[in-house]
Specification:
The protein has 181 residues and is α/β, with parallel strands linked by helices. Helices cover 44% and strands 12% of the residues. The strands form two sheets. A three-stranded parallel beta sheet has the order 1-2-5, covered by helices on one side. A two-stranded antiparallel ribbon has the order 3-4. Helix 1 packs parallel to helix 4.
């Protein structure tokens, strides 16, 4: 559903949905995905390998890449994609507490029943189809971001702190918890 909302707000060609990181191994696929405005990775890898971290950091930070696509020679491609990772588990990507590249949010809702959940999403889809996409686009268009600073750290959410804890050494976590108590 998120992909559909983003495609309707930003445009169909602005958003690409990737099932997993392995889909980005092919240079043509990587160029196509990274040249979009938004790249949604459906399942964030649970691996915390250094190579995976380096690959994602390079893709997210570089802004361009050299690649040879099928029937085209090697050339420099602009790769402005913003990454949006989805997952059912905490991310394992963080190197340290001062990493300014990550905003982590937990989105969930509790429903009294399956029927209540179905009713909520039916109403949401109906709202989207009756002007909701335009409302979201107008909200984004009119939002004042003049005070936004790319060099600042993102919001320090509870979810970010939980994610940072998952990447800490177990002994350091025990010591930190002891000292905080």
């Amino acid at each position: 559903m998120l992909k559909n909302v983003l495609q309707n707000v930003l445009g169909q060609s602005a958003v690409v949905n990737i099932k997993n990181m392995k889909d980005l191994n092919d240079s043509s696929t990587k160029v196509d995905a990274l040249s979009r405005t938004m790249l949604i990775l459906e399942e964030y890898p649970s691996s915390s390998s250094l190579q995976l971290k380096a690959d994602i950091k390079q893709m997210a930070a570089s802004g361009s890449m050299h690649a040879a696509r099928k029937y085209e020679g090697m050339r420099l491609w602009q790769t402005p994609a913003n990454f949006l990772f989805q997952s059912n588990h905490p991310p394992s990507m963080f190197d340290h507490n001062d990493d300014r590249r990550w905003f982590v949010a937990e989105f969930h809702s509790a429903y009294d029943s399956v029927a209540a959940k179905d009713e909520y999403f039916s109403a949401y889809v109906q709202w989207l189809n009756s002007g909701g996409y335009s409302a979201i686009a107008a909200l984004l268009r009119d939002m004042d971001i003049s005070d936004y600073d790319l060099a600042k750290k993102p919001l320090q959410t509870d979810e970010l702190r939980k994610a940072l804890k998952t990447t800490e050494d177990a002994n350091l976590t025990l010591l930190s918890d002891y000292l905080e108590a």
